[in-house]
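Quick start: load a record and inspect it. Here is 4Fe-4S ferredoxin iron-sulfur binding domain protein:
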Amino acid sequence: MALLITDECINCDVCEPECPNDAISQGDTIYEIDPNKCTECVGHYDTPQCVEVCPVDCIPKDPAHVENNAQLQAKYEKLMAAKR
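Running the structure step on this input writes:
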């Protein structure tokens, strides 16, 4: 399942540089997560790094993009292959 940033985001800028997949970017009013790039850090870390650093707990799982660990791993592998 990809993650999403809610409107509780305070634009503190700490999540964007933590994302190993470059899935986080500044949106019109708050940061946004590209569900096509978000693997919840599967393949990189044991826990989502953006969630770890968020001071306001505004990064839940996105119910519109439900994925299991195998799907997240496959997405990670596809993203890494595209970087080569």
